[in-house]
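Hi,

I'm pasting everything inline rather than attaching a file, because the server keeps stripping attachments. The sequence lines come first, and each chain or strand is labelled.
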Amino acid sequence: MKERADNSNNPFGLSRREFLKWSSALGATALSVGGISEVIGSIESKTHPFVLADRIVRTGCPAHNCGGRCLLKVFVKDEKIIRIETDDRPNDSIEDPQLRACIRGRAYRKRQYHPDRLKYPLKRIGKRGEGKFERISWDEAYDIIVSEIKRIKDTYGNSSIYVPYGTGSYNQVNGRQTAVRLFNLIGGSLGFYNSYSWAAISKATPYVFGTSVTGNQRQDWVNSKYIIMWSWNPCEMRDGTNSEYFLKKAKENGARIICIDPRMSMSAVALADEWIPIRPGTDVAMMSAMAYVMITQDLYDQEFVKKYCVGFDSSQMPEGLEREESYKDYILGIRDGIPKTPQWAEEITTVPKETIINIAHEYATIKPAMLYQGYGMQRRAYGETAVIGGCVLAALSGNIGIPGGCASGIALQADDGGPFWNVFPTGPNPIKTRIPTFLWTEAVLRGQELSVAEGVVGADKLDNNVKLIYAVATNALINQHANVNRTAKILEDEKLVEFIVVHEQFMTPTAKFADIVLPVCTQFEVWGLEDGWKYGDEVILMPKIVDPPFETKSDYQICSEIADRFGVKYQYTEGRTEKDWIEWTIEEYRKTRFPNVPNLKEFEKSNKGVYSTPITEPKIAFRDFRNNPQKNPLKTPSGRIEIFSKTLFEMQKPCTIPPIPKYIQEWESPFGEEAKKYPLQAVGHHYMGRVHSTHDNNEWTDEAFPQRVFINPVDALERNVEDGDEVKVFNDRGTIIIKCRVTKRILPGVIDIPQGAWWTPDKNGIDRRGCINVLTSEKWTPLAFGNAQHTIMVQLEKA
Amino acid sequence: MKKQYAFYIDTSRCSGCKACQAACNDKHNTGNGILWRRVYEVSGGDWIRKGNAWLPQVFAYNISMACNHCEDPICVKTCPTKAIYQRKDGIVLIDENKCIGCRYCEWSCPYGAPQYDSNKGVMTKCTFCYDYINEGKNPSCVDACPMRVLEFGEFKELKKKYGELAEVYPLPDSSITKPALVINPHKDSLNKPDIYLAISNKEEV
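And the predicted assembly:
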């Protein structure tokens, strides 16, 4: 990274920006050489000339995969973006708050005008992954791509083609959906399901509730009097534009807020009354002990559990399973002889038993209360159980179906599940087989062996290995997938994946593994439209603001030109330009979530950027069920909240997929043999300066949030490591060397390497940028076949 | 009576997200070491081991800080070329044509507000976005804040609304320069002896 300008040492040898601890007497004797100058109006304009924009356009912040969908006000002069401001609609209110952008949006010009933007199509000339390319023409690029697609289709069939997970663009006409549509018109491609974000939570939640719509609309959060942010860090990840602001409003409304997280996140700093650090991967142990307190002290909502749940105790077990272990049996230790007491949980979680007892009391008695689960704790070995454990606590406390409460789980927004993300139609895929997205390297190595046992859906097994990867808006081929060194070896082998195309804006670690790289415009350079992410009741127009530079094109344009070469151009475009598709998209919204959304012409003319509907009566999930469970049963097998899931029971994998949420020691854990060699747990939180790996090359965000390993002083002292030292972090899968930050804001025994830094191996294969996936494991979770990338053990020493 | 514009910062709810810093970077084309607005993370405390449990006694908060356009601006007094001046509305500005880059102001300001631009060879600092103020708008940083913890206004109005606190650890004694600043303190910055609070993100500011 670039060295900072010489500002740290001034001529007086004082470190400039640490506040001086002067006495006022000293201050008064400081060099005094003159009085206040007269104001001369013209000085300001000479020193700080105003730059007048030719035009100002309101637009959506480029839709990557952060939780935010914000409004930008873009100043353009001489066809260049010269300034970016944010939502300035008057009457910022809780019903219809301004969509204020974070640092990533405000610093976007450094990405937009980055000197490293890809300008021309590139063809690989070195070994795959080596990063050596030569410039070619678009025609040559298309010729190669078309002939390779044809060859691989003919040799192996369409099921050997894969358009991988990619979340870099969600503006309709930029993004992987454009390539899926292309392949669907020429025979299809192997599909996938799930995500790297919330595989376990999206899979597990419906086992309890029969739906993913378990969250009250956010305006309701202000009605809560007790909020547990469990592994939830809305400030740093931006879990929805304004989520942190709604929590601030809840706080002002008298809520007590607790944060349970191994890091004292900025959400804990800015919102919480109490931070409870917990050993990663042990959340279910703490949940179980809270349940123990609630049960043994008669604090749980007995009436609610009796009326709305199944599987709590032996009186409400599913038919035929009356003799199986109920949740209460497990908590009290009736069968296994281990009561899940706070003392038991303290040993596992590091949370003092007094704290657990206190939190259980508070959660059970302060009404209404909201236990909100983040996603970090479910990107772990048995992430599904942590999700279900939270849902069960919500049921025991009776906070379901009421204002100010929360059912936990994935908590998609009531009443309709929230935004659409992508409306651009991909069309039907002739290939019906899908894999769990996290298992794509398995589909490369041994696709023909993959079956339903490893999550294949749509067929009993795959009929192909993946032979062609067409990657759009993704850095998950290398950087964001687990175990980078393993993935790199797989992709280097041209006998496995025979052809790789990457659409990109920069030469990312993923792009380095392409055979052909195609340069893509940014979302400021093409028409687009975005809606809220997980939450949100707005659509945001993204007019084309500046022209695509050099030879860059939109993903849509590229795919339509390839479609042309396959003779399906009209089928692909239906005669529409990118702007026409946005018009089409708006009409889709009109038919569904937003009947009163203006048409494109009005929307564009108004230059408002956003259409939103103020929320005065926030929707409450499960309200109907709570009012009348007979008339409005859940879509679970029992029609009730399933504390015990018969469906999970029937899978007959009690050690990994228990029918009730049980604490299971992770496969890499401080309690295992592996801890002797690798004693530290490593997590990778969502860094404020990046959206996953997007913006890692942005000098403004990097200056604000430099990539560091965060380590507690207790662990640093043991290793003779000081703040700012270069440290080596390693396990059997790889090694990184970067600087560390010694901080008290993390639990001893845990280090944090913010995820998303671009893998930058030196000649010895040691990553010098701090990509945590050098250390993570490709092993997947048992029920969702999801990523468990946070479950890793490492060692750290001074480099 | 003389006008005096001021900033209000609610440090109790500042998430350290630095949207304000980036907004300032973007509006004024600064960066690469020059941060007219920057965010200090202050933390301290200790970890207590009790058997297998860890008891955190950890404290942390953020302070977003620009120029405080002080009522008694020491930078104006120390500038040997009178390049720094205070307008009648309290805004302190640097006339870059007069500035010789001697960095006295940098040394004298207890807040680190004036910053040296090595490319131009002159000092630079927060202008309060006086161009926006002229247009009746807030400074860019204020309207950037996703947590809505920054405000701008007349000093006496802000004091009436939020009180007169203008220093929390580790800000200097406010009597040195009389900063036009009102602070709502974070719970962790109050009356906690022996917790060794310190700026913990020095390389970022």
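The CA atoms of residues 5 and 154 of chain B lie 5 Å apart.

If the labels don't parse on your end, tell me and I'll reformat.
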